[in-house]
What does this fold into?
Amino acid sequence: MRLMLAALAVALPVPAMAQSQTITILHTNDIHGRHTPFHVAPGDATAQTGDPGRSPSGFERSANIGGFAYLAGKVNEIRRREGSGNVLLVDAGDTFSDDLVANATRGEAMIRLMNALGYQFMALGNHDFDYGLARTRELARIAQFPMRGANTLDAGKPIFGQPWKLFKLNGVRVAVLALSYHNTDETGSKENVRGLEFTNGIETTRRYLPRLRKAADIVVLLSHQGTAVDRKLARELPGVDLIVGGHSHDRIAPPEKIGDTWIVQALSDAASLGEVRLTLGKDRKLQSVEGAAHALWNDRIEPDSAMARLVADIDASHLPKMDEVLATSVDRIGRQYKSESPFDVLVGDLMRERTGAQIAFMPGVGYGVSIEPGPVTRERLYTLVPHPTKLVTLEMTGADVLKVLEQSATNLEPGDDLDRVGGLLQSSGIAWTLNLNQPAGRRVSDVTVGGMRLDPARWYSIATNAGMTGGLHRYAFPGRNRKTHEISVTQLVEEGLVRRGTIASPSIGNIRLVPLVAK
It folds into this structure.
């Protein structure tokens, strides 16, 4: 049921409620185009779940999870229980790219599914510009819900219009403000976001907050800033009741409280549906907050039949390509974000195998579903390398290689959470120690290539991708004999899997990461 936009005029006094009222906010984040079920098991089933130093976010059992038919089944169950007029469904961004079908339809598949489920508001994430600004505009017109970002400016104004909306749920006025990722222009092709400006979400919220507090009983931020920045905002800016987060793929349930602000997040990949229940007293003040992240186990949820038919219709023409088996894996090959990633080591090995390079570098990225033992389909591969970024080879001095490694340290621990961008640099053919407790310029040590200590004056052959050489995650790749190849890294990996036939998780341990010790 579509909710009507509440009137913005608030000059007249608002009468007190006759009794306490409870409203429900349902939320997803970082779906990354994932619209069909996938298999998980305890461990690093989706990106970031196995990274050290994080709250446990793995899965406790081996089973199929997720998929829009099951998401719809759970959403509709809660709507029936609470009354659809008392429920708000929102998404915190990184929603419609990074999947084979999503990419083939340039995001439209996900928008059609979200329209059918009745999403009511969405914050634009950094990957929601992966097809270029013009395509994001087209998708915003197709969407039957606002896609916004208060701190994403187009010609000096928030993209696509007013970045907040007032909803009325069970007599409660709820203002929702959308925030984008402030470093979006450093996480993908700069050409895709040319003309846009990405600004500080905390300062943006500070400007909007008085207006939101005047208009509403409850103020909600729908935030793609990441948990660290959401926590920083909660500490520095009182007056926000709830932050529904995204970007960092955390499971924050039950809700976490900082000051008077509650924070929630629902993992990623449509594997989980977040639910927050807010109870207000007669004085319209927030009395209690309860929340859960419902794992969408396929054997425990009744799928929605209409949504299942729509998914099947969308996927029908893509099935032959999706289901083609490229190789067989003998074990799980996971994707990690802020630690050494087995899948990315495999990619680096295939790049060096193809090019003869001594070293391969890939960016640390936080999306993707692990390759499970058994047949490896193209669909599963495309959750991990969805974008056809061109292969690049060049030669770099050892001194410049060291600067690349140091930049990874800066990205992980920049000193200010607002400056954090990307994950750990992934590598093959090189071993190194990264100690985040050392001062800048001395965090990288014990670097060896082919078992020999790195020589700052020597030239080394490098394989990477065009995103990295174009400045992704603030990396710089000076050098000589640079060549951009016609083959994409995705195609290279496809061909490598077919050539090998059988694959296994590569040995890791060449990156020795010493995490920052809290003081």
